[in-house]
């Protein structure tokens, strides 16, 4: 669960405006061995025990964790045990591929600098790149590959805001963000030019509140016609994360859904929650049609949160109603995700109707300001 801290110290972001960001690669799978291979341009290996070693295009370098060290194995047969290694590009346009051995991760195409060291139970693989080079991959992973340009521009602003606000999330681990859902999914460099152009055309643009503080730029797949206020999902209330009626996402496949649950499973769940004692108790009292989001359902005079029901039955959202059937209950729902902030299907629909990214972000984050990150401030927990 994400919690907002009530007491903040606000600082400017002079160290961040140059755009450098460090991202842990393969953060979820935590490989013991990776293969680094330059795909364009020459790279150099830097270690504490040797001078710079050039690595040519298509020349693989195997890096394996061994106790508290890493072992380098090169095509030339050279094998070196060292504490850490840094791969630096020789100039502009240098890129490399990175493969995690023994894992199901796809091969990543990356640019910038790569640092690899030993970490408890795995390698610590960190890619240092420009935040504007990082963003297109994030937008592709989080927003898909289909949609009008202004949809991707809006998502780029949202993703950039998230990155700058959370730049110190893994500070104690020695990097800024990870490449997994804990931060933002980063697959590496992507081929879609429409997404790259959308990021480039909004370079440096972020969203802040009325005090120029970077907002919590939450987003989700589909709101089902009404976004949720942050207080319904998390602890704190943010004025710009409130319920917004959304007519733009209704034609999406995720706008409405249904799931049938055996009556025995439903009754068993209610018993575990202490809602009912036996099957003779009333088991459904929700409205026949949801017209607005609710936090709690009343059953047998007791309250049960929609979030608990969603988690138990793996539902797409907590915006639903429960309808009795012969030997089952039918859960009819709306939307996909937590419902807070930008609705991606709605934003795509707005852009398809000619709405620009400024209108889209203002619609889903009312009362916020769109500005250059150089003028923004970041909340820091005390």
Summary of the model, kept short:
This protein is α+β, with helices and mostly antiparallel strands and 382 residues long. The protein is 20% helix and 32% strand. The chain has a seven-stranded mixed sheet.
The gyration radius over C-alpha positions equals 24 Å
Largest sheet: 7 strands, mixed
The strands making up the biggest β-sheet line up spatially as 5-4-9-12-13-2-14
Strand content: 25-35%
- Report the uncertain regions: 1-16
**What structural class is derived from the secondary structure elements?**
alpha+beta
The number of distinct helices, counting runs of at least 4 residues, comes to 8
**Average residue pLDDT:** 89
What is the helix fraction of residues, given as a range?
10-25%
Envelope shape: globular
First-residue to last-residue Cα separation: 20 Å
The beta-strand count equals: 24
Question: How would you describe what is shown here?
Answer:
The protein is of the alpha+beta class and 382 residues long. The protein contains eight helices and 24 strands. The chain has helices at 131-143, 149-165, 193-201, 230-233, 263-272, 306-313, 344-352, 357-364, and strands spanning 8-12, 20-24, 33-40, 43-47, 50-55, 61-66, 69-74, 79-82, 84-89, 95-100, 108-111, 113-119, 122-130, 177-178, 205-208, 219-220, 256-262, 296-299, 302-305, 320-324, 328-334, 342-343, 369-372, 377-381. Strand 6 (61-66) and strand 7 (69-74) form a beta hairpin. Helix 2 packs antiparallel against helix 7 and helix 2 packs across helix 8. The two termini are 20 Å apart.
């Amino acid at each position: 669960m994400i919690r907002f801290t009530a007491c903040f110290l606000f600082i400017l972001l002079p160290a961040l405006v140059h755009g450098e960001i460090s991202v842990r690669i393969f953060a979820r799978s935590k490989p013991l061995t990776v293969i680094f291979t330059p795909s364009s341009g020459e790279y150099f290996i830097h270690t504490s025990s040797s001078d710079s070693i050039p690595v040519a295009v298509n020349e693989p370098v195997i890096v394996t964790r061994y106790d508290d060290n890493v072992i380098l194995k090169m095509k030339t047969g050279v094998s070196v045990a060292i504490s850490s290694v840094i791969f630096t590009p020789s100039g502009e346009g240098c890129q490399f591929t990175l493969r995690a051995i023994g894992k199901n991760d796809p091969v990543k195409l990356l640019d910038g600098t790569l640092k690899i060291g030993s970490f408890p139970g795995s390698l610590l693989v960190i890619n240092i790149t420009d935040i504007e080079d990082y963003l297109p991959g994030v937008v592709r992973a989080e927003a898909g590959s289909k949609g009008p340009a202004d949809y991707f521009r809006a998502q780029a602003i949202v993703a950039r805001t998230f990155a700058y606000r959370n730049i110190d999330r893994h500070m104690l681990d020695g990097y800024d963000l990870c490449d997994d859902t804990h931060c933002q999914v980063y697959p590496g460099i992507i081929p879609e030019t429409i997404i790259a152009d959308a990021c480039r055309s909004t370079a440096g643009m972020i969203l802040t509140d009325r005090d120029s503080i970077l907002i919590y730029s939450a987003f989700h797949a589909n709101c089902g016609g009404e976004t949720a206020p942050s207080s319904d999902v998390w602890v704190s209330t943010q004025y710009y994360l409130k319920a917004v009626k959304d007519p733009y996402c209704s034609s999406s496949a995720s706008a409405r859904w249904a799931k049938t649950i055996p009556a025995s499973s439903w009754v068993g769940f209610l018993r575990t929650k202490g809602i009912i004692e036996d099957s003779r108790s009333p088991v459904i009292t929700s409205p026949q049609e949801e017209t607005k989001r609710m936090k709690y359902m009343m059953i047998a005079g007791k309250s049960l949160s929609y979030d608990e029901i969603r988690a138990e039955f793996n539902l797409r959202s907590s915006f639903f109603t429960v309808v009795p059937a012969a030997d089952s209950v039918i859960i009819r729902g709306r939307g996909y995700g937590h419902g807070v902030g930008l609705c991606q299907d709605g934003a795509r629909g707005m852009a398809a109707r000619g709405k620009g990214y400024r209108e889209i972000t203002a619609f889903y984050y009312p009362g916020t300001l769109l500005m250059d990150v150089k003028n923004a401030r970041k909340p820091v927990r005390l």
